[in-house]
């Protein structure tokens, strides 16, 4: 099968907790669930690409229970969510034993994209209604975007990486990447792979996606570090300074494949270099507002363009 026909992040996704690249304390906690054959409702919180969904799926596989994965950013409409969950929860589980505490798991990915005024409260009701035969695993990038009633019904697990664990995890993922590249018959320079892993640590998904995209040329070389996934703020600043709306919108289109939070963070980090000091406080407030909205909006492009339009009109650039 050619590499253009499938995603490496799916093809090489770990199937067990042991295969997941995690701090020892986190791995021990998840393995305890498996050994005990029980699972509470979980809220897995941490940055993008760190392995939350992979862990959720691995738990279900090792516990040998049926599960469904619902994406909150795509299926966050309350009616869609209600229909999917109710239809799934009401059917019989064929894998669960008679004495099992539960037979099904509903993985709700990117739950922080669900509307906190309507959909999240409804989800609370689903957890209570189907507690007899279902467990819920919610994943989110930002735990503060999940309402308190959901926090109280789930055990929070934060995917935090201590400084002392970073070298071990980065090394483990680096070795995993080399095996993938060898399996795919892709030539590579080890120093480039090392730099890419450290550049995006601990976003494993982004590393694999960028490697696969660049590997179409047949070799991983230094060009990867500058040509893939880079956010060029210079062009954006020029467009904002000269009030060229079309150029700004073009920049947004070119960068939409980046995670919205990464884009907002990059713009925020560049304020001191590109903006007059008197405008920075207003810019911070504006960026914070639209960054928060990005978890709920239907169209990320419109949201980012609206944010940048405010910065263009209200702020002074160097």
Topology, pairings included?
Layout: H1 8-11, H2 24-36, E1 42-45, H3 52-63, E2 66-71, H4 78-90, E3 104-109, H5 119-129, E4 134-140, H6 148-153, E5 155-158, H7 166-183, E6 187-188, H8 190-200, H9 204-214, E7 219-220, H10 224-227, H11 233-241, H12 245-255, H13 260-269, H14 271-274, H15 280-293, H16 300-314
Parallel strand pairs: 1-4, 1-5, 2-3, 3-4, 6-7
What does this structure look like?
With 318 residues, this protein is α/β, with parallel strands linked by helices. It is 52% helix and 10% strand. The protein is built from 16 helices and seven strands. The radius of gyration is 22 Å and the shape is globular.
Name its key features.
318 residues, alpha/beta, 16 helices, 52% helix, globular
Number of strands: 7
Task: Count the DSSP helices.
Answer: 16
Instruction: Describe the main β-sheet briefly.
Output: 5 strands, parallel
* Global Rg: 22 Å
